[in-house]
């Protein structure tokens, strides 16, 4: 039997979707105002990570990423390109696919 | 002439890549310790947003997303599924593809 792959979404797709939904408001609010909303969601994520509600936890991750995409849109950053440049060829610290950097070092 | 589409990466791909690179360390560090690293990157993103170095700004976005993916791996959250559930069908507030929620309301 064939299995259906789980649904997936790319960073370019998400960024375009968030742009369609919110770009006019995002630009009016600007980077600083948008960052405040982002930080509020980061706080909610911290709270959800301490809790036991897995559905709420998933929602808070989605909200944090949506606000990051919003800031990226206002700041003119392509998230896919940024991720591929930094993490597309292994750990930026040691260059390995499975990181061998010392545990106390970033990342 | 054909044009090459810009490179793209999906959330499932990124989460799998980050898992391969860092999962053993991430689990040893746990959610709380990982969240501290994430917050440090959020601070660096704030700093980069105030600056003029676009390359550094893109890197800081990549780092914040990488640490979010790390926390999601440790917490057992599927980011693609979370995003599709919350933002896959339009604005979660008003349900429209281009949001018509009042500007002072979330999101």
From TrEMBL, chains A, B:
<keyword id="KW-0378">Hydrolase</keyword>
<protein>
    <submittedName>
        <fullName>MazG nucleotide pyrophosphohydrolase domain protein</fullName>
    </submittedName>
</protein>
<feature type="domain" description="NTP pyrophosphohydrolase MazG-like">
    <location>
        <begin position="36"/>
        <end position="92"/>
    </location>
</feature>
<dbReference type="Pfam" id="PF03819">
    <property type="entry name" value="MazG"/>
</dbReference>
<dbReference type="GO" id="GO:0016787">
    <property type="term" value="F:hydrolase activity"/>
</dbReference>
<dbReference type="InterPro" id="IPR004518">
    <property type="entry name" value="MazG-like_dom"/>
</dbReference>
């Amino acid at each position: 039997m064939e299995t259906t792959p789980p649904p997936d979404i790319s960073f370019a797709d998400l960024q375009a979707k968030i742009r369609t939904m919110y770009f006019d408001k995002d630009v009016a609010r600007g980077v600083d105002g948008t960052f405040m909303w982002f930080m509020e969601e980061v706080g909610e994520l911290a709270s959800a990570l301490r809790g036991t509600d897995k559905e709420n936890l998933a929602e808070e991750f989605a909200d944090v990423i949506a606000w990051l995409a919003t800031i990226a849109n206002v700041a003119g950053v392509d998230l896919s390109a940024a991720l591929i440049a930094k993490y597309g060829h292994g750990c930026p610290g040691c260059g390995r696919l499975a990181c061998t950097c010392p545990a106390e070092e970033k990342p």
